[in-house]
UniProtKB/TrEMBL annotation:
Disordered: annotated segments: 307-326
UniProt KW keywords: ATP-binding, Nucleotide-binding
Record GO terms (molecular function): ATP binding
Classification via Pfam families: Fic
Protein name (Swiss-Prot/TrEMBL): Fic family protein
Keyword Nucleotide-binding: yes
Active site: 191
Residue ranges annotated for the Fido domain, each copy included: 94-251
Site (Important for autoinhibition of adenylyltransferase activity): residue numbering on this chain: 38
Basic residues composition bias: residue spans: 315-326
Binding site for ATP: 195-202
């Protein structure tokens, strides 16, 4: 089963080995935005310095750096499952062990310095909660803690059934983004862990996506209110709004890979899609920030330019090079 996913996945998108800059940019963006949705205050450049150089730039609490690092570690593992699944993977779209593994990877670094104040010894990273959760402000009440293991097992069964439908080229009851909205909302309603359910839920959704042949998605921090509103509507059985948010995020990251290959020379695309042997992503970003490359920075923080503008920048760059002297 996994081989079928792998063939479909890599026929459509380049692997991390073939498009490292694009995958790294998605990784930075996801680690930044998904933790920012939960209140993390690191800005993107601080996230990049932490993940690429291991430097804690700024003066933020240690727990915030650890939160980003843990999320990034878990996201790297998720991305890798599309190409090289762990030896113990049994071929299903997602497993209970993988959900617990993701939570453990994402939460251990922050838990080491700032554990949940109400956690017992059995409720650490990777373990289900043994506390009841008070009703949310919006009215949704997670199930009592003794019911959590069975409800997560049932959730896994439903997700794997969705995977079988797609593998057999059978249309599910709803468009794929709405099916993803449904399963994401159901996971959040169970709220299986004492802390980190939002981060884990988004990571698990991305695990499902990469195994279905799609890139991981990013819910932007500026979309927080819209995302929470969509989750509330999904609580009532309306998955359309959350499905639309997911669909747009899917399209955004698909375009990072696809648009550069089909776009005309003047089409604006993310800088990560314009990297070549001569210019790295860092070099392009620096040129854009200094105004030497014609580029624009969108509200999502991503710089975009075109192949035509990069060609013009290269030509001007070569002209500025001093001639060598004998």
């Amino acid at each position: 089963m996994y081989q079928l996913w792998g063939e479909r996945r890599w026929q459509g998108l380049p692997s991390p080995r073939e498009a490292q800059e694009i995958w790294d940019d998605i990784w930075h963006q996801e680690a930044h935005h998904s933790t920012a949705l939960e209140g993390n205050t690191l800005v993107l450049r601080e996230v990049q310095a932490l993940l690429d150089q291991g430097r804690a730039v700024g003066a933020k609490p240690l727990s915030e750096y650890n939160e980003v690092q843990g999320y990034a570690d878990a996201a790297r593992w998720v991305y890798g499952q599309a190409l090289e699944p762990d030896a113990w993977h049994d071929g299903r779209l997602v497993t209970l062990s993988e959900i617990r593994h993701i939570h453990h990877a994402a939460m251990t670094p922050v838990w080491n310095v700032a554990p949940h104040p109400d956690a017992s010894d059995r409720e650490g990273p990777g373990n289900f909660r043994e506390h009841d959760i008070a009703p949310f402000t919006e009215g949704m009440t997670p199930p009592r803690w003794p019911l959590v293991p069975a409800q997560v097992e049932q959730w896994v069964t439903e997700v794997c059934a969705l995977g079988r439908l797609i593998e057999e080229s059978t249309d599910p009851d709803r468009p794929l983004p709405e099916e993803l909205a449904r399963i994401h909302n159901q996971f959040e309603r169970v709220h299986p862990f004492l802390d980190g359910n939002g981060r884990t839920g988004r990571l698990v959704m991305n695990l499902v996506l990469v195994r279905l042949g799609y890139p991981p998605i990013i819910i932007l921090k500026r979309q927080r209110d819209a995302y929470l509103t969509a989750l509330r509507r999904a609580d009532a059985g309306d998955y359309g709004t959350l499905g639309e948010l997911i669909a747009r995020a899917m399209e955004d990251n698909l375009n990072r890979f696809i648009v550069p290959n089909v776009a005309g020379p003047a089409r604006m695309v993310p800088l990560a899609a314009l990297v070549d042997e001569e210019l790295s992503l860092a070099a392009l970003r620096q040129a854009a920030q200094r105004g030497r490359l014609n580029a624009v920075q969108g509200p999502d923080g991503v710089w975009r330019s075109s192949r035509k503008s990069v060609a013009a920048y290269k030509a001007a760059k070569h002209q500025r090079r001093p001639r060598s002297t004998a």
